[in-house]
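Quick start: what a row looks like.
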Amino acid sequence: MKTKDIILSQVKYLNKNIKTLFFISFPLIIFLGIFNHEETSEFIEVKFLEEENYLTSIFYLIIVLYFAYYFLRYVVNIHRLVILNDKESYFSFMKKFKVTFFYGFYLSILAIGFTIIIFFWSLTGPLIAELISFDLGPLFGIFLMIVYLFIAIFFFSCFALILPQVAVGEKTSLIKVFKTSKMMRKKIFLITLLIYVPLLIYSILTSGIVMFTSPYYAAIILNIIFTSVYAYGLALHVSCLSKIYLLWKEEENSETVVNNI
């Protein structure tokens, strides 16, 4: 199945299940729409740092921690919807806690890898400038950013299939995924690039619009509308990753059957 066909098939799938997707996504859209606004962030920062109201601080901390858990749960829900047609217990804290916990664990390992890549990116420009005793300017900085972006996406594509595996409760390991998912890396790389680069450009454009929108409630409403596109983009990427996982499993099963003949 070609990369284009995977994306189109999952767009059709999400649109077909748009009511379910909206139900799963609604808390994420509202939370990001409100708390991702600059004025809201500043208000919470004041509550945390300037006011000695510990109960308020604990309240906001609980909200943030629950949202972090719910964000993981949201992605797990999309994986399970596509792979298992699981349409139960989207918001229950205890149900699916184990798979959500391990999903967060492996995602954290990938995040460490991204952090290392970003660290080397931050060092490369100054190091080259020091070696040649010449500042190559902002264009070279943009070139380096693009190079390291490709490196980060390639790194993700090497291990990405562990995420749907964990989401459905399958026992696995990073080494096993790295060794057996080589044929799927190009698809994951292209899909990640094709989905998140447009979303990044969209984010830059819409954040500027929201910034200059007033009054506050109008900016929040606008931000919620814009955030719904981010949520759909995230769901599309997770859905495509789940589809690739299913294709990968089909290929593995076919090879097993051939080897047993």
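That is the whole record. The radius of gyration is 21 Å. The CA atoms of residues 150 and 182 lie 17 Å apart.
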